[in-house]
Each structure stands twice: as structure tokens, then as C-alpha cells.
């Protein structure tokens, strides 16, 4: 009998080899066994086809295999007449064994964890016997212990081959369920009593529950579980639990075992991938989450590297591949898992020459196992300490280094938050003292600042460099740091003896520290450079916290520091990666902005952080102010006059146009009306959040109105609901003017006000169903927004308890991200794009095409450039991703099935026009968080490029053919050109998350826009596809940029306009500059805003104008920021730098924008006084940045303004010197 086995399962390969050798010895002439390892890339497809076609029986399991295997096997197996045993999901519908056939679309019961049983609906007795045999074979295959391989091959030979008298052993005992176990002996125990009879109880020691897969499939984890249990036993009593059933069925039994009196766990460690309560075949994840919350103890999820050796993993910067990240990292994060530390990997492959396959097994990585055990020890210690005995380290930031940036974080007033935390810790029994934010800042400014620009009253504590080296105890790390930062080069924060400065202040058992900067001020480009080790003082600082100050827990305060950006893998970090080394075994808590799950996950994954989220500042309508309010009144007056007398209206129209010109807004009344209404309605953040603080009733009402106005869930935007309640049909609602929208939006706001101020039932307040639904939803939202769980979850984290996880994102788009406090996870990439994102993405695509056609005589663009961010994808659930799909002519599949793409190519006849090629520039966060989507995008481009369509309909295919020929002419091989010619996704190198252009602008290390274009192009040229990760192909990205006819990006954040975040000028501006340099001419730069009631596309200049009017020029925003003093002025300074960056990269920022910044903040004596009093360092920075803009010809400033700016700089420096803060 000729048997072929195609499997990724190392245990099966190993056992089949041994069993074939046994059969050769005991049953001469039994037949042949041909093996294919589908965990490896597909090699000789002809050999595969030949082996399968001539086989009598084929075993196939492609669960973790490259899709090429399925593609190659599909046509072969389609007409295959022999026995076909699919032991995975692929080809299950073609199962054939004797008379048994599995109905297409069904899953064998044993694949779901159920025991073999007679199949229902099979009447033929032989077919029923064959079905039972198939079920037993599949169970034995998945167990693969003892004589299981002989049972599989022997049964095929005896019952379906020519060895009817063969003696076949019974398979390993099948004991589906959840069992207390001894992983060292593989023993299973029927009850807790039986287990305790063989293993004496904890006797007061902490208990650690260890969950692991008790079945050998797909790799055998039990030997690893045995080693881990032994290692943990030095610090705890271990309760091993072997799971041999489906995930959903296991949860209640695990809870039952963990509720055994005396065995209640202090901590749970799981070696299972996927969700707690849900696996690859489904389950009940919500039940699992509820169970973990009920247990209330930390849930640790170390990683088993089942697809790589330890040596390969150590030397790969990307850690895990996309599918491994999904099942081993991302899905456990949904359950609040922490400490995702690799502890085992595959042994180096052992080659079997006869069968031409390699075999391997899991093996513990000792140093990684020790790190996990150390972190368990740290959590158990934290759980056992009284609050009064805990030593808590609170870390704030100061980068770029200097006084002006001390204690800054996204959306958080760090000084006030630390003061609030100190007060709360004092209240709950920690040995510390309350201090005000002003005193805290003064204590730090007195000498505890990174690389201060001015001499200070005191010097920070020094840490002798020899002691630091000895305390670290890691010579490899020390050598790496000192090689990168030699003693004769720049080394920040060292004294004249080479000892390290440790800026901090202590309030009892609580230390407030200042995280080291990444680099000297002259090179802050290193702040997020993941390729360069930290400087010696950075390493020394965290070594001091661990070994000298002996912190019991480290808390990083705010989004975000630089710890997680130190040299490291993208995920699955090792003990040699610097974020891991810095925190060591100390429990790590990170207070992170709930609106930024993308970067939060980096902190969790790289630095083993327990995340505690904080809410955004309150969001409210920006409204119209100053000249905008006057302009709106003039427009209203013109409208009234136009309806009465033509002569009067003409005069008013002329006045209106003059006013509009002075405000740099459209002069056409209709266009002006639309722009003013968009400015009036856009939401802005007011101030900064203070950790633990609640919104008051008025602020809750603002948030509810914002959500209702934009629409939420199944509730359309407020104006649509009010218009429908008014009797308008959908088509008429779609054609409403901005003014009409505003009127209906006001009606929705009034309804919200009624809902929140009245106690009456909704039925008594509104006569129509739509209005009642708004009232009900408004009240639900108010309850959600009034809650705040930040203190609750911070206390849990500081006590070594479980912190549950929730979806992070924009609270206006998705209110379910609140209340804050819980840990964070991202939107499931398997659901990208959502149905709503797909609709909005199509609208975004249509709008940028329309803008291009309006400016090019109706011609369609053939190629556009889009920026695709991870945070935007998480926030919008894939709007830009869907925009790419729409442009190239791809859509979501009607239904998603395992093993099949979730998309399909739109037929040519259904397209609204030609396809549009897209050059996609991704951020590093998109690469790391959505690796499966990178592969999917590559598949889409390949599919569209392969279509046989005219060039004018399919420029993707046309450009791919041209590029392939160009690459061939350049000496590249045919297989390489076939793969590279359709690649359209580019981004930063694997070690980095951006291009570094922000740091170039910050430091001023550039001469011309050409320099910036070159820096961006060099930084973003790394290609990403299904088979390539961050490679550089010289000229490939630049060549694509030369074909781009417009550049666009989505604005998805209510918190940030393009003037409020530096990464907009880095990516949008950088790509615009890169395209202009590659083409030799500028192209339109567009911003599509999806935060409002309607998708709206504008030029970068108009988008910047909207951002300036919304925040920097808005008195309400400015006053809210100045209420936060030092940090508020820093926010203003940041936006000034962003404006310069946009001007430098896009060339579209007008002089009036800089004029207004100068006049409003530095030309107004009272405002200047307030800025200087709050933060003189940042005030000087604003003046310096404006002078730089003038010097670089980005702003043509008048002499009077230049004099003002120079005087501000001089007077500010003089003031600081006079205050004793400066010396040399």
C-alpha cells in the first residue's frame, strides 16, 4: 500500500518515520510511506503531484502551512480516487475512507474535541464503521503518543490495504476533558482529591495554576509544562491542568478546579494559544473573559515558538510572523493576558535522508524560562506586600531633553496626575505624602531634568559607573551599549568622573523619576530608533531602580515614553532586548491613553506592561470665534438681505467677500456657508485629563452630544435622525445643505439636553419612535461617560491582580472604549474592514478621484499615494484600508470562510470607472499590529495585476508588466520580478516605526525640502509583502513615487488635526515631498476627514486652516490648555513646530498662518506674559521656531514681527538667567 502524508505536525512526521522503520522490520513488503513537511515552503510541486496521484491513501493536514500547498493540492485531489484523510479544515469536504464520505462544510466531531461516535444520518453499516474508523484515526493522529502512529498506518494497511491479518495496537487512551495532571509523568487525575493524594498540598504557599494543551497536536507542550512547573515550584505550589477538550468546554471545569478549597490560584499561567474559552474552531470568548474576571488574578501567557528554533528567533528582528502574532499574542491580549514571554522553541531540525524531511520538537529556552519565573516571583511578592511596605516608582518623561518638555504626555496633565496618584496612595495606606503639582514640578526643575539647558540649584544623585556595571550583571548588554556609546563620544547625563546622574525625587516609599532621554539634544532622532542601544545612563537608570532603590513596581505615567522603543524585536522579546532588560523581574504598570491602543500594545508586548487606560479630555464642538463668528453673522445678514433687496445685498456681498478673504476662507457664499458649518460642528478636546478625575454633568452632556451628532452603532448621525423624524426621505436627507444639517443637528442637541435634564420616561418626552430612541441612547451614553474606573484598575495593578482588557479607540466613534481604567486591545484585524469602514472607504476613494478629475479635465488618476497608519486602522476599523480596496477594485467577500480570502475582485463591468493603482506607505505600527493585512494587501495587488484587462481600465496590471520588464532588464531573475513587480506596500525598516523625519525637523538638521524628501524616501522605501519583510530594492519605491499623481491621508482622530500631530507632516508631508522630488513637480496633497457627520476631502492647506481655527486659534482651546500651565504651553509650542513641518514638506502653508501664531501668542503682551510665567522654555521655543520658518523662507515675516520674536528670545533668556536657572 502506498501512503502519502502531507503535514505540518512535527510529532506526526517523527512518529511516522519511526513507524515506517518498524513496519519495514516486521512486515516486509508492506508498502511505502512518502512524507511532505508542509510547514516548509512548497518545493517540487511535480514530485508532490506524482506522489499523491499514485497513492492509495493520502493524509493531509495543512493547518499552519503556506497557502501554496493548498493551491498545489487542490487540482490534484479534485479527481483523486483513493482514500483521502484530511485531519485539518482544508479539504474536509472531500473526506473519503472506504464507504464513508463527509458532507461538504461539516467538521468531524473529533476536530471539535468531541469523542468518536457513530455519525448521524449514515445508514449504511459499512459506511458507519468507516466513519468510526476515520474518527479514531483522526484522534490518534492528534494525540500521537505511544503506538498511535502504528495504529494509524496499521489500520490503513489492515482494513484498507493488503494486510488483513496485521496486529494493530489500540491507540492511546482517549480522555477528553480537563484534568489535574503531572506533566513530568503525563499522569491524569480524576479529581482534586486524587491529585492531592499524590502531591501534598500548598500548605500556605502561593498557588500558580498552569494550563496547557494535554494533546500533542500540533506540537507537544507537555515536556515544556513539566520544566515550567519544576521551575515555578521554588516560589509557589503549582497546580497543573491538562486541557484535552475544546476551549469552550474547558472553562467551567477550570473554574471548578480553581475553586477547590486551599487551591485557589494567586496567578494563572497558560501555555494555550488563542482565547481563554475560544479556539480555532470557535467557542465562547465572553464566557472565558467573565471567568478570568471572576478569578481576579494575573493571567500570564508565555509563548511557545513552534515554527522556529531559538537561534533563528534570537536573530530575527520581527519576532513572530503575522499568523503567530494573531494566535499567540493578539488573541490572548483580548483576555487581558500579560507577560507574553517566549520560553520554548523548536530544536534544530534533524534531517531524515530516507523520507527527505526534517523533524524537531519543543525545547525550553533556559534564560527565557528564568525571566518568566522571575516575573511570576515579582507579581507574587507584590500580592503579598502590605501597601505600607510597597516601594512604588512613578516615571515621567522629558524628551526632547530639557526643561521645556518636562512631564509631558498625550492628553494627560502628568504633573497633576502624579500629584493625584500620590494623594490616592497616601489615602490607601502607602507610605508617602501628598504634594501639589506645582511643588512636584519645582522639585524636579530644581535639578532633576535631563540635560538641562540652564544650570540648576542641585545636581541629581550619582550612580558610580563601576557599581552600575556590576549591578546589571549582563556583560553582553553592557558591551553592546559601550560599543555604541564610547567614552570619548557624547554621553548624556554623566558627571566629570563618568558616573551616571539619576534625576528623581522621593516622597517616602514613592519615587518620582524622570525617564532618560534617548540621545544628546543634538541627535534626538534616536528617540524612536530601535536599532541603536540606549546610552549608558539610560541602562544605568533602570539598573539603579532594580538593584539600588529596589522598586516593587514601576509605573510609567502617560502616553508615551521611550522604553518600549529601545533596541528590541517587534514582539516576542528576549532577555537580551533592552525593554525586557530594563524592567527585569519588576512588575510593570503603564498608564496609557485609551484612544491609542496601537502604541499601547507595543508597550505591553515589549516591556511586559500591565496597561491601565485613562480617558480623553472632554470633547465639545469647537464653535465659531473671533472673526469667524463675525463672518457667520455677516453671512446671515447677506442671506436675509438677498431675500429682500438686490442693491443692499450686493453691498453686503462685497463686504462678506472682503471678510472671507481676511479670514482666508472661500468667498462664494454657498462654499463659505459649508466651511463655516464644518468649523462650527467639529469637535475639539478641551485641556488635558487628570488621572482618576470624572467628567461633570456638563462635560458628560458635551460627550453625549458629540456621539449622538456623529452617530453611533445602529444609530445614524443626529441630523439624519431629526430630518427623518421631520418626514424627509433618505434621498432628500443625503442632499441636505450644511446649513440644513446644522439646523437638524441643533435639534438633536436639544433632544439630548432634554434627555439628560429630565427624569421623565422617553415616551413622555417624544412623540415619535426615532426621538425616543435618541433619548434612550443618550441616557445610556451618559451613564457610561459618568463612570471612571481608573483608580479601581490602578489599585488592582499595584496589588498584583487581574486587569481586564477592553477595546481601545476614539470615544466618540466607539463609546464602548469607556469607562477607562481597563487594559487595552486593538480591533480584531480579521474584521478589517468593517461594513461601515468599507462604505466610508469607498466614499473616500470616490472623493479623491473626484478632486483629481476636477483639476484635470475629467481624466482619471492612474496612480495615487496613500498613507496607512495602524492607529487609524484600529480607530476606524479600516477606512483607509477599504479606500485602497475600492481604488484598485476589490471588495469584501459576502461571507468569510476559513481557508478562503475575505475579499473578491470586482468584475470590470461593475466598476464605476477605471481601477486606480495605489502606492501605500504604512507606519511601523500598521506593520506590527496588522501583519496579516499586509499579506492580504499583497494578495489583492497580485490578483488585480494578473487580470487580463485593457491598460486604460487596469493601470495596476499595466504598471506591473512595465515594472517586471524593467527589473528583468536590470538583471533580476524571473521569479524575483514576478514577486516584486506587483508589490505596492512600503514603510520604515523592521526596526523602526517611522522615518525619523519628525526628529530631523525638531533638531533643524536639514537644508532644503530636497533633504527632507530624500530622508523620507530613504526611510520609507522598505517593501512589505506576503514573503518579504522590510527589504530594500534600490529605486523601487522611488520609481513608484514618480508615478503618483496625488497624495492623500485620512484624518480619523477627533483629538488631532493635521496641525496637532507631528506624524502628519512626517508621513503625509514626507510622501508629498518625496513624490515631488521623484516627479520633478508637486502634486495635490489631500486630507480626507472622516471624524465629522460626513466624509470631507480638502487640500492640505485647507485641512491645516481647519486645524488652526479649531485649536491653536480657538480661545476656548487655548484657555483650556493654559489652565494646565507648563504642559499647556508645551502643547502650543508643539503645534508651532508642526506648522513649520507641514510648510517644509508640502509647501502649502500660507504666510498668514505664521503671522497669526506670532501675533496671537507673542505679539499680545498679556498672552506673552502668561506663556512666560507658565513655561518660559517653551515660550522661547515658539519664538525660535517662527524665526526658523522665516530663515528658511517658509514664512515671509515683516521686520516688526522679526523684532518681536528676537526680543522674546532675548528677554526670556535674560529672565531665566535672572531667576538663577542659568549660568554659562
UniProtKB/TrEMBL annotation:
<protein>
    <submittedName>
        <fullName>Aerobic cobaltochelatase subunit CobN</fullName>
        <ecNumber>6.6.1.2</ecNumber>
    </submittedName>
</protein>
<dbReference type="Pfam" id="PF02514">
    <property type="entry name" value="CobN-Mg_chel"/>
</dbReference>
<dbReference type="GO" id="GO:0051116">
    <property type="term" value="F:cobaltochelatase activity"/>
</dbReference>
<keyword id="KW-0436">Ligase</keyword>
<feature type="domain" description="CobN/magnesium chelatase">
    <location>
        <begin position="157"/>
        <end position="1201"/>
    </location>
</feature>
<dbReference type="InterPro" id="IPR003672">
    <property type="entry name" value="CobN/Mg_chltase"/>
</dbReference>
Amino acid at each position: 500500500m502506498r501512503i502519502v502524508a502531507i503535514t505540518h505536525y512535527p510529532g506526526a512526521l517523527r512518529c511516522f518515520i519511526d513507524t515506517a522503520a518498524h513496519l519495514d522490520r516486521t512486515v516486509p513488503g508492506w508498502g511505502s510511506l512518502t512524507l511532505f513537511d508542509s510547514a516548509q515552503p512548497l518545493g517540487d510541486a511535480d514530485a508532490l503531484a506524482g506522489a499523491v496521484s499514485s497513492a492509495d491513501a493520502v493524509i493531509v493536514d495543512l493547518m499552519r502551512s503556506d497557502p501554496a500547498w493548498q493551491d498545489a493540492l487542490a487540482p490534484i485531489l479534485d479527481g483523486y480516487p483513493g482514500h483521502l484523510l484530511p485531519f485539518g479544515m482544508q479539504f474536509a469536504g472531500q473526506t473519503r475512507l472506504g464507504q464513508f464520505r463527509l458532507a461538504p462544510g461539516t467538521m468531524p466531531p473529533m476536530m471539535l474535541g468531541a469523542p468518536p461516535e457513530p455519525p448521524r444520518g449514515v445508514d449504511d453499516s459499512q459506511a458507519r464503521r468507516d466513519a468510526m474508523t476515520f474518527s479514531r484515526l483522526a484522534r490518534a493522529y492528534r494525540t500521537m503518543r505511544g503506538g498511535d502512529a502504528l495504529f494509524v498506518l496499521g489500520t490503513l494497511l489492515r482494513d484498507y490495504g493488503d494486510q488483513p491479518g496485521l496486529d494493530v495496537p489500540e491507540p492511546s487512551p482517549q480522555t477528553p476533558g480537563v484534568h489535574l495532571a503531572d506533566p513530568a509523568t503525563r499522569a491524569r487525575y480524576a479529581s482534586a482529591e486524587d491529585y492531592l493524594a499524590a502531591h501534598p498540598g500548598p500548605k500556605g504557599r502561593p498557588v500558580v495554576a498552569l494550563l496547557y494543551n494535554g494533546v500533542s497536536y500540533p506540537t507537544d507542550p507537555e515536556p515544556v509544562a513539566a520544566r515550567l512547573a519544576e521551575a515555578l515550584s521554588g516560589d509557589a505550589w503549582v497546580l497543573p491542568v491538562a486541557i484535552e477538550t475544546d476551549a469552550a468546554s474547558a472553562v467551567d471545569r477550570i473554574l471548578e478546579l480553581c475553586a477547590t478549597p486551599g487551591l485557589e490560584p494567586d496567578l494563572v499561567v497558560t501555555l494555550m494559544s488563542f482565547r481563554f474559552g475560544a479556539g480555532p474552531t470557535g467557542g465562547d470568548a465572553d464566557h472565558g473573559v467573565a471567568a478570568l474576571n471572576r478569578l481576579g488574578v494575573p493571567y500570564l501567557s508565555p509563548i511557545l515558538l513552534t515554527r522556529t528554533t531559538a537561534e533563528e528567533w534570537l536573530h530575527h528582528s520581527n519576532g513572530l510572523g503575522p499568523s503567530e502574532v494573531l494566535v499567540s499574542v493578539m488573541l490572548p491580549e483580548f483576555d487581558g493576558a500579560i507577560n507574553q514571554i517566549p520560553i520554548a522553541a523548536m530544536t534544530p531540525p534533524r534531517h531524515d535522508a530516507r523520507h527527505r524531511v526534517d523533524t524537531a520538537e519543543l525545547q525550553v529556552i533556559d534564560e527565557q524560562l528564568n525571566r518568566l519565573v522571575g516575573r511570576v516571583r515579582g507579581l507574587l511578592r507584590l500580592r503579598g506586600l502590605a501597601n505600607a511596605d510597597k516601594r512604588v516608582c512613578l516615571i515621567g518623561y522629558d524628551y526632547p531633553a530639557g526643561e521645556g518638555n518636562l512631564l509631558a504626555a498625550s492628553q494627560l496633565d502628568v504633573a497633576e496626575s502624579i500629584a493625584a496618584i500620590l494623594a490616592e496612595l497616601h489615602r490607601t495606606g502607602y507610605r508617602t505624602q501628598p504634594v501639589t503639582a506645582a511643588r512636584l514640578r519645582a522639585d524636579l526643575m530644581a535639578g532633576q531634568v535631563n540635560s538641562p539647558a540652564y544650570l540648576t540649584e542641585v545636581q541629581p544623585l550619582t550612580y558610580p559607573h563601576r557599581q552600575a556595571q556590576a549591578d546589571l550583571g549582563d556583560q553582553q548588554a553592557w558591551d553592546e551599549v559601550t560599543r555604541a556609546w564610547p567614552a570619548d563620544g557624547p554621553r548624556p547625563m554623566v558627571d566629570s568622573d563618568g558616573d551616571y546622574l539619576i534625576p528623581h525625587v522621593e516622597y517616602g516609599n514613592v519615587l518620582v523619576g524622570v525617564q532618560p532621554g534617548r540621545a544628546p539634544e543634538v541627535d534626538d532622532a534616536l528617540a524612536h530608533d530601535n536599532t541603536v542601544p540606549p546610552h549608558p545612563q539610560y541602562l544605568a537608570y533602570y539598573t539603579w531602580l532594580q538593584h539600588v532603590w529596589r522598586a516593587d513596581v514601576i509605573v510609567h505615567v502617560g502616553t508615551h515614553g521611550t522604553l518600549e522603543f529601545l533596541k528590541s524585536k517587534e514582539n516576542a522579546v528576549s532577555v537580551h532586548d533592552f525593554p525586557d532588560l530594563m524592567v527585569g523581574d519588576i512588575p510593570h504598570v503603564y498608564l496609557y491613553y485609551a484612544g491609542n491602543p496601537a502604541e499601547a500594545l507595543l508597550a505591553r508586548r515589549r516591556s511586559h506592561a500591565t496597561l491601565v487606560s485613562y480617558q480623553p479630555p472632554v470633547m465639545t464642538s469647537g464653535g465659531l470665534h473671533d472673526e469667524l463668528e463675525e463672518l457667520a453673522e455677516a453671512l446671515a445678514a447677506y442671506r436675509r438681505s438677498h431675500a429682500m433687496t438686490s442693491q443692499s445685498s450686493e453691498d453686503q456681498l462685497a463686504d462678506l467677500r472682503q471678510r472671507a478673504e481676511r479670514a482666508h476662507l472661500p468667498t462664494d457664499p454657498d462654499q463659505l456657508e459649508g466651511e463655516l458649518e464644518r468649523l462650527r460642528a467639529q469637535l475639539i478636546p478641551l485641556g488635558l485629563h487628570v488621572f482618576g478625575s470624572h467628567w461633570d454633568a456638563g462635560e458628560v452632556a458635551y460627550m453625549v452630544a458629540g456621539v449622538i451628532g456623529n452617530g453611533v452603532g445602529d444609530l445614524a448621525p443626529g441630523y439624519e435622525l431629526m430630518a427623518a423624524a421631520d418626514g424627509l426621505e433618505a434621498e432628500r436627507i443625503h442632499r441636505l445643505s450644511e446649513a440644513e444639517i446644522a439646523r437638524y443637528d441643533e435639534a438633536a442637541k436639544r433632544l439630548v439636553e432634554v434627555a439628560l435634564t429630565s427624569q421623565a420616561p422617553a415616551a413622555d418626552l417624544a412623540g415619535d419612535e426615532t426621538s425616543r430612541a435618541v433619548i434612550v441612547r443618550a441616557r445610556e451614553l451618559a451613564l457610561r461617560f459618568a463612570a471612571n474606573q481608573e483608580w479601581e484598575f490602578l489599585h488592582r495593578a499595584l496589588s498584583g491582580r487581574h486587569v481586564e482588557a477592553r477595546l481601545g479607540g476614539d470615544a466618540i466613534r466607539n463609546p464602548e472604549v469607556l469607562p477607562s481604567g481597563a487594559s487595552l486591545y486593538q480591533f480584531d484585524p480579521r474584521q478589517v474592514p468593517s461594513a461601515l469602514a468599507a462604505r466610508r472607504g469607498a466614499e473616500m476613494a470616490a472623493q479623491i478621484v473626484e478632486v483629481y478629475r476636477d483639476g484635470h479635465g475629467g481624466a482619471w488618476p492612474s496612480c495615487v499615494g496613500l498613507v496607512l497608519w495602524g492607529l487609524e486602522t484600529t480607530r476606524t476599523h479600516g477606512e483607509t484600508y477599504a479606500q485602497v480596496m475600492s481604488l484598485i477594485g476589490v471588495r469584501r467577500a459576502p461571507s468569510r470562510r476559513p481557508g478562503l480570502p475575505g475579499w473578491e475582485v470586482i468584475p470590470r463591468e461593475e466598476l464605476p470607472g477605471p481601477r486606480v493603482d495605489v502606492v501605500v506607505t504604512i507606519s511601523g505600527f500598521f506593520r506590527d499590529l496588522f501583519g496579516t493585512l499586509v499579506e492580504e494587501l499583497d494578495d489583492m495587488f497580485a490578483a488585480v495585476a494578473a487580470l487580463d484587462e485593457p491598460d486604460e481600465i487596469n493601470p495596476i496590471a499595466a504598471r506591473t508588466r512595465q515594472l517586471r520588464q524593467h527589473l528583468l532588464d536590470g538583471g533580476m531573475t524571473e521569479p524575483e520580478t514576478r514577486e516584486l513587480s506587483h508589490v505596492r506596500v512600503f514603510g520604515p525598516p523592521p526596526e523602526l516605526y517611522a522615518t525619523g523625519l519628525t526628529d530631523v525637523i525638531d533638531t533643524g538638521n536639514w537644508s532644503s525640502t530636497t533633504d527632507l524628501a530624500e530622508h523620507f524616501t530613504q526611510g520609507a522605501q522598505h517593501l512589505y509583502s506576503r514573503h518579504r519583510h522590510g527589504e530594500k530594492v534600490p529605486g523601487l519605491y522611488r520609481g513608484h513615487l514618480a508615478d503618483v499623481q496625488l497624495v492623500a491621508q485620512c484624518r480619523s482622530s477627533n483629538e488631532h488635526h493635521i496641525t496637532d500631530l507631528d506624524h502628519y507632516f512626517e508621513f503625509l508631508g514626507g510622501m508629498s515631498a518625496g513624490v515631488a522630488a521623484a516627479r520633478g513637480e508637486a502634486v495635490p496633497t489631500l486630507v480626507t476627514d472622516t471624524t465629522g457627520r460626513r466624509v470631507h476631502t480638502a487640500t492640505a492647506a485647507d485641512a491645516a486652516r481647519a486645524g488652526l481655527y479649531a485649536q491653536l486659534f480657538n480661545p476656548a482651546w487655548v484657555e483650556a490648555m493654559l489652565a494646565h500651565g507648563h504642559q499647556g504651553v508645551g502643547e502650543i509650542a508643539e503645534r508651532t513646530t508642526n506648522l513649520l513641518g507641514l510648510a517644509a514638506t508640502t509647501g502649502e502653508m500660507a504666510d498668514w498662518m505664521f503671522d497669526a501664531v506670532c501675533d496671537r501668542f507673542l505679539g499680545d503682551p498679556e498672552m506673552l506674559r502668561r506663556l512666560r510665567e507658565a513655561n518660559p522654555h517653551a515660550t522661547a521655543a515658539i519664538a525660535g521656531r517662527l524665526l526658523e520658518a522665516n530663515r528658511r523662507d517658509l514664512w515671509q515675516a515683516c521686520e516688526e514681527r522679526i523684532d518681536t520674536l528676537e526680543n522674546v528670545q532675548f528677554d526670556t533668556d535674560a529672565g531665566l538667567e535672572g531667576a538663577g536657572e542659568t549660568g554659562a
